[in-house]
Amino acid sequence: MAVSGKVLLQAEEIRRALLRIAHEIVEHNRGAADIVLVGIQARGAPLARRLAASIEALEGVAVPVGRLDITLYRDDLDREHFRPNVRETQIPVDLARKHVVLVDDVLYTGRTIRAAMDAVMDYGRPRTIQLAVLIDRGHRELPIRADYVGKNVPTARREVIELHVSEIDGADEVFLLPASQEQA
Amino acid sequence: MPLDRKDLLDLDDFSSDEIMLLLETTSAMAEILSRPIRRVPTLRGKTIVNMFYEASTRTRSSFELAAKNLSADLVNVSASQSSVEKGESLVDTMRTLLALGADMIVMRHWEAGAPYLAATQVQASVINAGDGWHAHPSQALLDLYTVQKRIGRIEGIKLAIVGDILHSRVARSNIWGFGKLGAHVTLCGPPTLLPPAVLDAYETLPNLTLSYDLDEALQDADAVMMLRLQRERMAGGLLPSLREYSARFGLNRERMGRAKANALIMHPGPMNQGVEITPELAYSVQSVIEEQVAHGVAVRMAIFYLLAGTAERLA
């Protein structure tokens, strides 16, 4: 896909940011026990798998990884944002009493995370829910913040941030696009 | 690609992409049914009315469970206990339901075409849950999903639909669904219940054939769909006797041997065991009859979800 925009993060920077986040998750939770990483579809899912691989390399513990599609929990069903394609949700373990780390690419209004928290609660009562994002671009509409942030990027609302990951798009890159080319 | 339509009336005007979108969405809904809490908030605040002019157990409760799993409010109305008994017209009943705040109306009617009339009268989405001999699209979708899940594809499979084709809305919608996705469909039954003119409506489907010999229809089939034989057909003089029908068109172990080794046995229910199918086969490992019922809930959740997402945009 040809994208004309400013490159915010290159592959190497993405790798370092994820590695730092992996360290922070382990530090904050005093180890990797009882951690479950849950990637929000679509691009949070590969990021969660990469974080799990890093944590395993650091701690020697295989952390369970799930993926979550929050489409059915959105609050804008009737609006133009309607997404017909419901992607796969797969939660491999019971989330009760676990530390669930939600993983997403970009934190923006916070509505996706609100929906994801509702979805996670339906799988059990976790001890904590934490949030890791590669990019925090501001403009929150709900009282939500991330526990782990790859990079803070001040943006205008009209701008669009697009993450490409090699698992889906063939290469790792984060772009800042000037005008609205894709819906948030 | 969203589903850009207000209503689900039949599959005859659906593209294969639209049918595939429904099947993919069904798969996502099936995951919800496997969770400890089988409920998502998607349709919170929406009102769905089940308007049944004809008796039904599985279809009606399946739509009801689907609505509740998506957190919609559901009202059941049966014609026999409503103002329909007092002579209220279909159009007036629809307008009343709309005035009460119905966002979607699930309708079963003994008259072919009734849901089409209803759909022109109200802004709410109308979902055809069976109209006369004409169509039963949600049943066809759950049959497609069952085959897709078991065999892995629809395209190129050989499906035999056996029994009273003439009076079967299940068969009609399935001919469209399986035909559009590229299956080879063979219709089989006695000539009185399968006049050649049945094919006239399906000229656009290339792989549809007709057979009056069950053994021939079953040859190398991947799936066999048996239809319910309604006993009132005997009174109409269309069949000499149940025994003769059963001998020529009933499915038994020996005949099933002509189909492929693990061919699926399907039935939309309710079954006449010992007439169109032996109990032995109905409960065999090849039978997916209970899976069909279970998948019905997920299919109807997918229908509600996709129609809810488009209804207001089209208004």
Structure description:
The complex is a heterodimer of chains A (184) and B (315). Chain A is built from 4 helices and 8 strands; from the N terminus they run βαβαββαβββαβ. Chain A is of the alpha/beta class and 184 residues long. Chain A has one domain (6-177): Rossmann fold (3-Layer(aba) Sandwich), CATH 3.40.50. In chain A, the strands form 2 sheets. In chain A, strands 3-2-4-5-6 form a 5-stranded parallel β-sheet, with helices on both faces. Chain A has a 3-stranded antiparallel β-sheet with strand order 1-8-7. The longest helix of chain A has 18 residues, at 11-28. Chain A starts with 5 loop residues before the first strand and ends in a 7-residue tail after the last strand. Chain B has 315 residues and is α/β, with parallel strands linked by helices. Chain B folds into 2 domains: 16-136 and 296-314, 3-Layer(aba) Sandwich (Rossmann fold), CATH 3.40.50.1370; 137-292, Rossmann fold, CATH 3.40.50. Chain B contains 12 helices and 9 strands. Chain B has helices at 16-33, 58-69, 90-99, 114-121, 137-151, 169-180, 214-218, 232-235, 242-249, 253-256, 279-282, 289-314; strands at residues 47-52, 73-78, 104-109, 125-131, 158-162, 184-188, 208-211, 223-226, 264-266. In chain B, the strands form 2 sheets. Chain B has a 5-stranded parallel β-sheet. In chain B, strands 2-1-3-4 form a 4-stranded parallel β-sheet, with helices on both faces. In chain B, helix 1 (16-33) crosses helix 12 (289-314) and helix 2 (58-69) packs across helix 12 (289-314). Chain B is globular, with a radius of gyration of 19 Å. The chains are: A alpha/beta (184), B alpha/beta (315).
Provide a concise account of the structure shown:
The complex is a heterodimer of chains A (184) and B (315). Helix content of chain A is 27%, strand content 26%.
What pair of chains forms the biggest interface? A-B, 22 and 26 residues
Terminal Cα span of chain A:
18 Å
Mean pLDDT of chain A: 90
Mean pLDDT of chain B: 93
Rounded radius of gyration of chain A (Å): 16 Å
Low-confidence stretches of chain B: none
Could you state the oligomeric state of the chains shown?
A: heterodimer
SSE run of chain A: EHEHEEHEEEHE
Strand order of the largest sheet of chain B: 7-6-5-8-9
- Which homologous superfamily in CATH is the superfamily of the largest domain in chain B? Aspartate/ornithine carbamoyltransferase
- The N- and C-terminal alpha carbons of chain B lie at a distance of 18 Å
Q: How many separate domains make up the residues of chain A?
A: 1
Number of domains of chain B: 2
Determine the CATH topology of the largest domain in chain B. Answer: Rossmann fold
Overall, the morphology of chain A is: globular
How many H/I helices of chain A?
Answer: 4
CATH architecture of the largest domain in chain B: 3-Layer(aba) Sandwich
The helix tally of chain B amounts to 12
